[in-house]
Design a protein that fits this description.
5 helices, 10-stranded antiparallel beta sheet, alpha+beta
Amino acid sequence: MKYTLLTLSLFIFSISSYGQEFVNGTIITQRYDTIANVKIETISEAKSLLHLTYVDADGHQQNPDIESIKSYTRGDENFTRIYNNGEMILVKQITAGKKLNLYERDYNGITTYYVEKVFDEIIKVPSSDSKFSKVLGEYLSDSPEISKKIKSKELQDLKEIVNLYNNA
């Protein structure tokens, strides 16, 4: 009975580890070389920030150093490298707006958000309510109506704030 359970467990594990799913994507390296029409492995968002596996045009599986990647698309998802506090980090782009971009980084079970004014600075969105309203309200002060609603805590949903700012 033990051997049957062990064999069954190994069989299920081997199927799940080989049941990889790949989707179309494009990779841009730190040297701005573009690797187009590749199949990129679909893995969790947290793991997507740490490593990348893709199948090239010749059908060979590649595992480049994640530090060599500037950005990549995987289906509808876009992962890009941003500069924050003297460090380049890989994040998932949630919103690509005309005025404001929203990024997310899920690392070690903690989700951190970043907002970036297009062609301007990027800030880490504070997780505490009091700092959130103060920092984000000041950051978006060029839109007084939105800034006032953030500071008064009338607006607290980050995605809604980004959409409102982009449409203002």
